[in-house]
Amino acid sequence: MSEKPVEDIVFGRMAPGISVRDIGVAFAFYSRVLGFRKVFENGAPVGFMVLKKDAAELHISQKRDHQASIVNVAHMFVDDVATLYAVCQSAGVRIIKSLADKEYGQRAFVFADPDGNRIDVGERIP
Description:
With 126 residues, this protein is α/β, with parallel strands linked by helices. The chain has a single domain, classed as 2,3-Dihydroxybiphenyl 1,2-Dioxygenase, domain 1, CATH 3.10.180. Helix content is 16%, strand content 40%. The protein has two helices and eight strands. The radius of gyration is 16 Å and the shape is globular.
């Protein structure tokens, strides 16, 4: 078997996986508020789902004793961060960091899902 250096390996899609206490509540949030659709589920009862919206993909796993991290578990880029921020505010989503222009060239905010998982959302500033 020939091995090539890691520099020559092409990496494909990578999707964050997060734990949630109640997969039904999590699915309702990500679908109703953010517009994700379920493209896969596994288990009886369901304990794992793959959610997708455009190029964004999120894998959620039910873990009844889940404790949220105090750091961001995912970073998501969108083409209209101000509108998504307004959508989250209107839906009563807990905002961790308000929408602001960052010194690293993004307009961004951080929200928490119903399980406290923190998602950083950004848009590159031209």
